[in-house]
Design a protein that fits this description.
It is built from 3 helices and no strands. It is mainly alpha-helical and 59 residues long.
Length: 59
């Protein structure tokens, strides 16, 4: 039996998606995204680490 999704699970899924979209659309301009989200750059870096969002080094 599948465990129902909690509010915390839901929030994490959509927070990760939202941050990933913002960071990619800004071409990884951390300062710009932090300002848009009204959070510190440190907090944004913490969230990127929490969700395993990393800049793709291939071009």
């Amino acid at each position: 039996m599948k465990t129902p999704m909690t509010l915390f699970d839901f929030r994490d899924i959509y927070e990760k998606k939202f941050i990933k979209e913002k960071i990619e659309s800004s071409r990884w301009n951390i300062s710009k995204v932090a300002r848009q989200l009204d959070i510190s750059r440190t907090t944004l870096y913490d969230l990127l680490e929490k969700y395993g969002i990393a800049k793709n080094k291939t071009r």
